[in-house]
Design a protein that fits this description.
The complex is a heterodimer.
Chain A: H1 2-8, H2 14-20, H3 23-43, H4 50-71, H5 74-79, H6 81-98, E1 100-102, E2 105-110, E3 115-116, H7 118-135, H8 139-142, H9 145-163, H10 168-185, H11 189-209, H12 212-222, H13 233-245, H14 256-259, H15 271-304, H16 308-332, H17 350-368
Chain B: H1 2-43, H2 45-56, E1 57-62, E2 69-70, E3 76-88, H3 96-107, H4 111-123, E4 130-136, H5 138-146, E5 154-163, H6 171-174, E6 177-179, H7 182-187, H8 189-194, E7 200-202, H9 205-209, H10 211-214, E8 219-225, E9 231-238, E10 246-247, H11 252-261, E11 267-273, E12 279-285, H12 291-294, H13 299-307, H14 316-319, H15 329-338, E13 347-350, E14 353-356, E15 359-362, E16 370-373, H16 374-380, H17 383-393, H18 395-404, H19 427-433, H20 440-446, H21 457-468, H22 499-514, E17 533-539, H23 546-551, E18 565-572, E19 579-585, H24 591-623
Parallel strand pairs in B: 2-10
Antiparallel strand pairs in B: 1-8, 2-3, 3-4, 3-5, 6-7, 8-9, 11-12, 11-19, 13-16, 14-15, 17-18, 18-19
Classes of the chains: A mainly alpha, B alpha+beta.
């Protein structure tokens, strides 16, 4: 059969692969990179300083890396699914013992040229691992106790390693990535509902076990005006910055809230605040649209992939990215408590960008090799 | 294969269904985020914009320029001068230690002052201004300017500050300003509103009474600041309004003469226009230099002023309560005439002392005056005569007349918070206050202005003015452009029952000064242009014992604190009178020898200045 011959044809030439690129996704990623660079330039006070330079270099290297990953057959990514997961778990263990401590949390590895945050990588590789795990599984086996327990262990192991760092935000995001895959793999939706209910019921107990600073964050979220100069400061200043932006914003490099240093963490978690202050409602919506297009393309690539693994990865990654974005935005807009969660690509931070770019690379690879079947 | 493919189909169906559910969920979450953005950025934009401006814009207030005081002729008597100051902003100085020691050398600061500067530095934030010196001489200021090249971060600043060019002359009228303390801020909304560190506010006198008019409004600088409060750029400069200039009725030349006359004496002089009530001069001696207080008085100077036995801090014109002595006699006589107790022909024989109610009352003249009528009794100030008419009159009628003419009541209402009421006693008062019945003997000594009766010099001046103007009520004032609270219909209310009685008193006072045997005859001026009429007074500070009466010591032989107060009231020129005055010299001995000669010098100047005063007035009307 003609179709059959096409299916088995997995030796694309370089140019064919190039032709198979999803250019809309690529353009959106590059656009996002450009916007993030401009925003970083603004956080440096309109000068090309450390953050801008560093962000630019990382953006260049990781974009190249993403393109390189795209050319690698999706089969390869399938084959290293478990290995990569275990490697990152190994890195987390290593970090636990030898990591660098910064602002009270031990989450970085010193790699001499870059400080790597393995927990960020875990957000992607847990998807890869679980996608591989469910790839060959028959639907009726998916809801077996063994499968559920195994997948829960796969999720809880890195979560635990990240919680002890301590980094609650990232561990929650790792869990979200994993759970997204479980959802698409077809685990009975009642489990999700039960889990959700269980979570809501146990919430007060969870809060009781939180560390004092984490408890404070939750309480602050519930009432930021209680301590406007202390714990509530970040969220109040963030809301002021976004709100004062108005429809069209204060203009590029004219965000007084960030320029005058009222904004905390403006390079990292609160970068959207600065962007929103300078470009207003219109700019924010444009940025959201770019993200939506990216997610839409990821989902579309998944839908067009022949292999279940690629589908699962794309859907899972799309959902994870979506959650990362919405959690970050909800946080800076005062809809969620402050948890450390970067905005993909926009936020300053190499590990997060590396992980996101690897994810984009694998998605692109799935697109390039969309007709690739994985046995 | 078929099995596996059917499983694949199932799996695909499942994943696609779930993708659809996820997609819908994503859509709703996105709508949620966009609507949150819309809420914050479009709907609540104004609120957050205000908050953002509040964040970034900080106002700095500068001290307002205080309104001036001018005398009647427009001379500045409390003005502003440019103080040369030295400011340092510590964070802008690279090597603070070097600079501050260099400044110490250049300014020749004492170790004490230097320590004060270092202490101040510790109290402020590094970007706040440290005032190293707040009133430099021009020499030092220019010296600093010459060395600026090696004093990085030091700013020579010219700042506006209070200045009293006539030093001690007006202190008891105007008062002085000094740095606002917590109490000042608490007591006045306006000071609170205009407060900046180092602001000077009135502490006493008119400076305090008219604080709200004088203070003006701050210059305001608006700066953009960062989250740490550091100034980034100036956005706006809003010029403040200078405080209102207040014009006084006082004539500086006469005020200065009053100061000279009372030099090294304790006492008071006040001069008043008998028709308008304008205070021409009002001086309390000794006075002190208000300039000492502007930048905070030094401990040494403060001790000198505070411990002076002549009490410079006491405003004797308004606060000093003296027995009026014989200066009350015109009122006693007037009261007796008005109440029909006596007429001008009423005569008393004075033998030097008189026995009444088992007590001996002495006339100041041991030998006695013989038979005296009203006019002669006033002229020679015969005490026996006034004992007799006081006895006939009774204290209640006397106090009524005295009060009517302005004694025993604040002259300026609430203008000066330190002003005292004085005391005009009557039977009711004694019963209420001391719980005892009035003794007739007390009436008798009240007749010569001794006993319970206490008056302030300004009250005596007002009393004299109201006798001089023919017996009409006037309202003394000292600030020209203060709004008049008195209804026009209240002006010039007759205080007499019969205007002839006033003329009798005026004539008697004329005799007292201008006729032989008059108590102030030696201080008379014959030239009708300057001729004045007056009444001396000598107020005992303590009861004279029989032994002392026999000794008959001269004033210089009595210890200072036991000497009599010398008083004098007068008005002039006798034909067409215009001005009244009262003089009190504490422990001055005798009214006719100490106080009356001062009146002679004063009247010469007062009358000479009168035309100038009138011409200013006419010019003022012409301008309108």
């Amino acid at each position: 059969m003609y179709q059959h011959t096409r299916l088995t044809n997995n030796n694309f030439t370089f140019f064919q692969k190039f032709k198979n690129f999803d250019y809309i996704l690529l353009v959106c990623i590059l656009l996002l990179g450009f916007i993030s660079l401009a925003t970083m330039y603004s956080t440096d006070g309109g000068k090309i300083l450390f953050h801008t330079k560093s962000h630019f270099i990382k953006l260049m290297i990781f974009t190249m890396m993403m393109l390189f990953i795209s050319f690698i057959n999706i089969k390869f990514w399938f084959s290293i699914g478990y290995l990569s997961y275990l490697t990152v778990v190994g890195l987390l263990v290593w970090t636990y013992f030898f990591g660098i401590t910064s602002s009270g949390s031990q989450r970085w590895m010193d790699l001499y040229f870059i400080n790597l945050q393995p927990s960020e990588l875990m957000k992607i590789f847990i998807i890869l691992c679980l996608a591989k795990y469910f790839h060959r599984m028959k639907l009726e086996n998916v809801n077996s106790v063994y499968t559920i327990l195994t997948s829960l262990i796969i999720i809880l192991l890195p979560m635990g390693l990240v919680i002890v760092q301590p980094d609650l935000g990232t561990s929650v995001l790792i869990a979200v990535s994993g759970i997204a895959v479980l959802w698409f793999a077809g685990i009975n939706h009642k489990y999700f509902i039960y889990t959700m209910l269980g979570f809501v019921i146990s919430l007060p107990f969870v809060i009781a076990f939180l560390k004092p600073y984490q408890k404070l964050r939750v309480l602050t979220f519930l009432n930021p005006d209680k301590d406007p100069l202390g714990a509530g400061y970040q969220i109040i200043q963030s809301k002021i910055a976004v709100g004062s932006g108005g429809i069209f914003g204060k203009g590029f490099l004219k965000g007084t809230q960030s320029y005058l240093e009222f904004l905390p963490e403006k390079h990292t978690d609160f970068i959207f605040t600065l962007f929103s202050e300078e470009f207003g409602f219109v700019g924010s919506v444009v940025l959201l649209v770019i993200y939506i297009i990216i997610i839409y393309r990821i989902v579309a690539i998944g839908a067009n992939s022949r292999s279940y693994f690629a589908k699962l990865f794309c859907y899972g990654f799309g959902a994870a990215i979506f959650v990362f974005i919405t959690i970050n935005m909800s946080m800076v807009l005062g809809l969620l408590p402050i948890v450390g969660s970067p905005l993909p690509i926009m936020s300053y931070g190499g590990s997060s960008m590396l992980a996101t770019m690897i994810g984009f690379g694998i998605v692109m690879s799935a697109r390039v090799h969309s007709q690739q079947l994985i046995a | 294969m078929i099995n596996s493919s059917s499983d694949n189909v199932k799996k695909l169906n499942s994943i696609n269904r779930r993708m659809f559910i996820t997609g819908s969920l994503k859509f709703f979450i996105m709508v949620g985020i966009v609507s949150r953005l819309f809420f914050l950025q479009v709907k609540e934009n104004k609120k957050y914009l205000t908050l953002s401006d509040k964040n970034r814009i900080r106002e700095w207030k500068l001290a307002p320029v205080r309104g001036e005081f001018q005398d009647y002729f427009g001379n500045v008597i409390a003005g502003n001068f440019e103080a040369y100051q030295l400011h340092v902003i510590p964070e802008q100085v690279e090597n603070f230690k070097y600079v501050i020691y260099r400044l110490k050398d250049l300014l020749e600061l004492s170790d004490k002052d230097f320590k004060k500067v270092l202490k101040k530095k510790k109290e402020i934030k590094p970007w706040e201004t440290l005032i190293v010196s707040n009133n430099l001489s021009w020499d030092k200021f220019s010296k600093i300017n010459n060395h600026l090249y090696d004093l990085n971060g030091v700013k020579p600043v010219i700042s506006i500050s209070r200045n009293y060019p006539f030093d001690e002359n007006f202190t008891h009228i105007i008062g002085y300003v000094s740095q606002a303390n917590e109490q000042d801020i608490e007591n006045s909304e306006l000071i609170k509103k205009n407060f900046v560190p180092g602001i000077k506010v009135g502490k006493i006198g008119l400076e305090k009474s008219f604080e709200e008019k004088l203070i003006g409004t701050n210059d305001i600088e608006r700066y953009e600041v960062n989250a740490y409060g550091r100034r980034i750029s100036q956005l706006e400069f809003q010029k403040g309004k200078k405080g209102q200039t207040l014009k006084l009725t006082v004539d500086t030349e006469i005020q200065k003469l009053a100061n000279v006359l009372l030099k090294d004496k304790a006492g008071s002089i006040c001069v008043m226009d008998i028709f308008t009530g304008e205070v021409i001069a009002m001086h309390s001696s000794p006075s002190f230099d208000p300039n000492l207080f502007v930048f905070g008085i030094s401990q040494d100077n403060w001790q000198i002023i505070r411990n002076d036995p002549m009490k410079p801090l006491l405003n004797k014109t308004l606060q000093g309560r003296y027995s009026p002595g014989s200066t009350l006699k015109p009122i006693v006589a007037l009261s007796a005439l008005e109440n029909g107790i006596i007429n001008t022909n009423f005569t008393v024989r004075c033998t030097g002392k008189t026995e009444m109610y088992d007590q001996t009352y002495h006339c100041w003249k041991k030998e006695g005056h013989g038979y005296v009528s009203l006019r002669n009794a006033m002229k020679m100030s015969c005490d026996t005569y006034f004992y007799e008419i006081a006895r006939k009159l009774g204290v209640d009628k006397l106090s009524e007349t005295a009060k009517k003419f302005g004694l025993g009541k604040k002259v300026f209402d609430n203008l000066f918070e330190i002003e005292k009421d004085g005391l005009i006693p009557n039977t009711q008062w004694k019963k209420n206050t001391l719980g005892k019945g009035w003794l007739l003997g007390e009436t008798i000594i009240t007749g010569i202005g001794q006993g319970y009766i206490q008056t302030t010099p300004i009250q005596l001046c007002l009393m004299t003015a109201q006798i001089a103007n023919g017996g009409y009520k006037i309202y003394p004032k000292i600030v020209i452009n203060d709004k008049d609270k008195i209804k026009p219909s209240d002006y010039y209310i007759p205080l007499y029952k019969n205007s002839k009685n006033i003329r009798i008193i005026q004539d008697a006072m004329f005799g007292s000064t201008n006729e032989v045997m008059g108590t102030s005859y030696r201080s008379r001026i014959d030239n009708p242009k300057y001729q004045f009429a007056g009444k001396t007074g000598t107020a005992q500070v303590k009861k004279i014992t029989e032994r002392e009466r026999e000794l008959d010591l001269k004033t210089s032989e009595i210890p200072y604190e036991q000497r009599d107060h010398a008083l004098y009231i007068a008005y002039g020129p006798y034909v067409n009178p215009r001005y009244a005055l009262s003089i009190v010299v504490e422990h001055g001995g005798n009214g006719s020898t100490t106080a009356a000669p001062m009146a002679k010098k004063l009247f010469k100047l007062i009358v000479d200045r009168h035309e100038m005063r009138q011409s200013i007035n006419e010019k003022k009307y012409l301008e309108i």
